[in-house]
Design goal:
Helix content: 55-70%
Order of helices and strands: EEEEHHHHHEEHHEEH
Strand order of the largest sheet: 2-1-5-6
Shape: globular
Largest sheet: 4 strands, antiparallel
Oligomer: single chain
Strand content: 5-15%
Number of strands: 8
Length: about 260
Amino acid sequence: MVNEIAFPGLGIGSMHIKNTFLFFGFSIHWYGVIIALGIILAYLFAVYEGKKRGVSQDTLLDIVIFGLPAAIICARIYYVIFEWDQYKNNLLDIFKIWEGGLAIYGGVIGACISTFCYCRVKKISFPKVADIGGFGLLIGQAIGRWGNFVNAEAYGAETTLPWRMELVDLGISVHPTFLYESLWNIIIFLLLLWYRKKQKFDGEIFLLYLAGYGLGRFWIEGLRTDSLFLGPLRVSQLVAALCVIVCVALVVFIRLKQKKNSEI
């Protein structure tokens, strides 16, 4: 399939974007390649960060090996739960993940559960590993969102803003929400990279990742046209708001507790 996309307000004319390519006779989806690239770069940075935090490369590789399947399964379960009407009469379609239908929050939940269990078994500090994971998730998400661009999906409502994205085949110009989220993740990554030398406790980076990502996702989700809903509420906005409130509260609480203990 070829998607024709343009950014007329930025002077970028029509681009014919193929979402697949042939490799030794096999049809490969660019979306999968982009996701794989994001995972590889996230892992490489995690290894670099792990050296600073005393977490070995072998440990991080084990976490990725166990975490990836858990993330994919939970991302699919999360999506199916909120799109149950689409699958209740065609249960086998639940397993057709190549047709789309993965939710990032479900993936994060799955990765966290898997990593927590691994850390408990191996008697490793989960908060310390989670801090490394927070950086990795931001890298993976920032790169992975370009898979949405290739597929011409996960876009926002129609707009006339200068940076609008024109979906030529559909005859509409929309918010490039994939780009908004990719840039937001890069900003959060850079801020946390600067802040890490100032963090006061293990797990703080991960909590700030959840809060920072949630803050941006709450706004971006409000622009999207493919949201999952729970009644009248957008699920991702609800989860994002909870992440911001809970994680900020935890950071403040732990910091105040540390300050109080230091004064005793």
